[in-house]
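lol so apparently i was supposed to do this last week
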Amino acid sequence: MILRLKKEATEQKAHEIGKELQAFVVKQPSGYVLVTPSKLKSVEDKHQSFVDSFVVLDDDIQLASKKYIPHTRKIKISDKVTIGGKTNNSVVITGPCSVESEEQLEQAAQLCVKLGVNVFRAGAFKPRTSPYTFQGLGLEGLKLLDKMRAKYGLKIISEVRDSTHVQDIIDYADIIQIGAKSMYDHGILKACAKVRKPVLLKRGFGTTLQEFVQSAEFILSGGNDDVILCERGIRTFETKTRFTLDLCGVAWLKENTNLPLILDPSHAIGYAYGVADLSRACLAMGIEGLLIETHPNPAVAKSDASQQLNFEQFTNLYQSLNAVAKAVGRNIV
Ligand code: PEP
Ligand code: MN
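anyway here it is w/ phosphoenolpyruvate bound
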């Protein structure tokens, strides 16, 4: 259950009631909000005079539920880029899977500037499936991303691999990406709950929608309102593609949650040949954005070589997106 306390309710009172109800106390500009275990279904008489309104929830999807906020949350990424709310904006995020060198980042950043892409992605701490492959440049990679931001005015998104460097990502990135393999890492979730920066939370590839959104609840209940969900494919019996992009799940998330949605067709299919078609299909669902991997020379990429688009492929795709966006009443930002 979510209880909105009256504006006059003091911090002390909010914590007092919160303790009694085993609730999270979230401070909002409009006052205190208490999030209790979802099995609580009514407000006791003794608390009535402090409660402005309340929402009864079926399960532990609470702050992310459309029953709590009936529209998609508005998230400001920069002066140029806001998603959600009434904006109808879809942000296109691109860049290489990993930061490999300054020259590689320069080339990819220049492509963004040339096309008008505002948000640049690359991983510095890579959560690889093998210890014998490239693990990322770490902090040095983040500093190179920082350099691109300063030079080209791009906003930066980069992923947290584990809680040992979560603070570095918080310090450097404009959007903190929590990778699919880290969706359950409570150290990361709780650290991201304390910051005032948008977090892009990827769905673990073996998780249900309920588990995915409950992970987001860890961030929301800790006080960070700006969570974006990212569907990036789940594991099914199919082996011809790397993962299976769960578009039915996307429809469910759109219908039931108030969190903006960004889709990642690159990691879902795992092969460059399908990324353009999938990107257009995703955008046609009326989502808040796309995350697409691009590399100056995918053949020599140190991670995810098979799925990254070369610059010509990305340019052609990017230029085709406006028509799709227009058809479903959205704007590319
Ligand atoms: C990535 O974005 O490069 C990445 C590793 O993604 P995921 O966490 O979805 O596997
Ligand atoms: Mn990747």
